[in-house]
Design brief:
alpha+beta, elongated, 3 domains, five-stranded antiparallel sheet, Enolase-like, domain 1, Arc Repressor Mutant, subunit A, 10 strands
């Protein structure tokens, strides 16, 4: 992307700010009357023509006002955005709310969504704290009627998984308990792929159960973002450009598909800072007229994600500041609790 001269960049910043505030195309006359740029109306019109030619703003015709394009928003976010737009009082109030919350990662995620929707009046999302890969903690094998057994797997992350299996031949409860004990000793603290790579001399029942455990853990890893809290639909419904046609319906349907959340959250753990995708930068078509501001929180391997989804006409500086503030406070809580 080309670097704009200072005055051109200032005019673009004005257009973006005015359009975010009003939703109305910004005219050269409004810029001339509202801002002291030491530039004539003709000069401002020339600068706006240049911005339109380079794709930073859209103009239905030459006499119309300017509306920021995705490219214009992107340039402002990366080059022209003001400093953090969150007050000391707001930060302190958010901190107090988290301090009053129970030491429960799910509670933190729900609270983050509540704060983000209230402060930013857009859709907010949060995933609870999770490790990127689950780890084996304990296994029980219980004999049931006939050839059926119950495999009970406890993960280090606190979840319990169960699976019923039907064997080809009956195994006594003592035999099942012995098999569970051997696997508990060998697998403690390991991931699914590490268990699969183990070289153990095992009996047939131990091999069957170990394979089942690996598949249970792989399924858990594949759906680690499946639990996600969402709120704020009422605010997006108030956005006129989102309620036209089928845009809102498409967005609702897309967010109900967990695959879109996985695509938003993919690789987030390895990317520091806040990630912003604007309009057509979004892969999913349902988000093409939205912007997504998202980041992770946590420490070490314990990570979750929070973010905001709204129209491209969102106050990026404030959204980024609030999201970053909430993420930092949640990371503090995680550090204090899990360090």
């Amino acid at each position: 992307m080309i670097e704009l001269p200072q005055r051109t960049g200032t005019i673009l910043k004005i257009i973006v700010g005015e359009y975010i505030s009003s939703g109305v195309a910004v005219s050269s006359d409004a810029i001339y009357r509202g801002y002291s740029l030491r530039a004539s109306p003709a000069t401002i019109r020339h600068e706006m023509a240049y911005l339109a030619e380079e794709g930073f703003i859209a103009r239905p015709h030459t006499s119309a006002g300017g509306v920021p394009s995705d490219k214009g928003y992107r340039y402002c976010v990366e080059n022209l955005m003001d400093e953090a737009q969150i007050t000391t009082e707001e930060r302190a109030a958010i901190r107090r709310r988290f301090k009053q919350a129970r030491q429960d990662p799910d509670e933190w995620a729900r609270l983050a969504v509540s704060i983000l929707t209230q402060k930013l009046q857009n859709i907010a999302l949060a995933t609870p704290l999770r490790a990127p890969l689950c780890h084996f903690r304990h296994l029980d094998i219980v004999s049931l009627e006939g050839l059926m057994i119950l495999v009970v797997l406890v993960l280090r992350e606190g979840k319990t998984k169960q699976r019923f299996l039907t064997l080809d031949q009956r195994v006594s409860q003592d035999g099942l308990t012995a098999a569970a004990g051997k696997l508990n000793e060998a697998c403690l603290g390991l991931t699914g792929s590490e268990i699969r790579s183990l070289s153990l001399k095992v009996s047939l029942i131990e091999e069957i159960v170990a394979g089942t455990v690996v598949r249970m853990m792989q399924a858990e890893d594949a759906h680690r973002h499946e639990q996600c809290y969402l709120d704020g639909w009422r605010y997006l419904m108030a956005q006129a450009n989102m309620t036209r046609g089928n845009r809102m319906l498409s967005l609702v349907e897309a967010l109900e598909r967990r695959s879109i959340l996985n695509s938003l959250l993919v690789n987030l753990e390895s990317e520091p800072g806040v990630r912003i995708t604007i309009g057509n930068e979004n892969v999913d078509e349902a988000l093409r007229e939205c912007s997504v501001v998202i980041t992770n929180y946590g420490v070490g391997e314990w990570r979750g994600a929070i973010g905001v989804i709204g129209p491209t006409r969102m106050p990026y500086g404030r959204v980024i500041s609030i999201v970053d503030c909430v993420s930092s406070l949640m990371s503090e809580l995680v550090s204090q609790t899990y360090a």
